[in-house]
Amino acid sequence: MPNKTLAAAALAIGGVVLWTLWTKPRHAGTALPVEVSIDVEASVSAAYRQWARFEEYPKFMVGVHEVHQLDDTHVQWRAEVGGKEQKWRAEIVEQIPYMRIAWRSTSGAHHDGIVTFEKLSETRTKVVLKIHSDAFFLNEQIGDASDEGRLRASGTLKNFKDLLERREHVPVS
Predict the structure, then answer these.
(1) Ordered structural domains, the chain, with CATH
(2) What predicted TM-score, i.e. pTM, was given to this entire model?
(3) Closest Cα to residue 43, out of 139, 166, 155, 165?
(4) Which of 84, 133, 155, 166 has the largest count of CB atoms under 10 Å?
């Protein structure tokens, strides 16, 4: 009797594992999510407004060549990933002014993410970037894809901080 119970439990567990594998979403892959953050010397509204300028992403996003806003909720990306040019479309799935912007790819390379803005003071904001992308696995010679993703995300936030703080300190005419 214990052997039958053990066998039934093993089959049930195996069934759950197989079901999970077979019902993965279209973009589910082996990439691990990456989360990085940075504090910037800028107001929440300034940080949010800069990030919401989708077509300016090449000014601060590592590896991004161009982003075209197709409509209010869709953007087309072109970026270099693993030494190869990749294109994809993404949908803005959530945009709460001065709080967060979330997106997910709808075609091409898998690239989903969310950026949040936390007010630290009137002139200081914490920016948190979370990305989940299988794009780093397109070239197996890159090495550890999660390290590559973390390096890109950290570089992106550093560039964002530099761009934003330069703009914040330029006198407005």
Answers:
(1) 30-168 (3.30.530.20)
(2) 0.74
(3) 165
(4) 133
